[in-house]
Amino acid sequence: MSMIACPECAKEISDKAAVCPHCKKPAAKMQNAAANASPSIKTMTPAEDVTSPAGKEWKIVQLIGGLLMVIGVVAWIGNSSDAGMVIFLGCLIYLGGRLGAWRSQD
Ligand SMILES: [Zn+2]
Q: How many angstroms separate the alpha carbon of residue 8 from the centre of ligand 1?
């Protein structure tokens, strides 16, 4: 139990008291109203960067990786000996891009 100032008469009253013993005002009710009137902390959330330059660059990296995978698959269909290597490289670059984009979001 702690003492609060009555919003009406400014005298010290218990925070558990529903009615101020000095001015008979419903203290608890007034307190809740004041709390509701205060601006919420919701507005504190930082504005989201819709398109941060770092995220955009990582998207390009992902695109290059994906493109390499497609080229690798095409080469694999064409029975090229380097197809596996190209697909592997494409996967690595793509995953790197994904990881970079994920890390740049924080
Ligand atoms: Zn009072």
A: 5
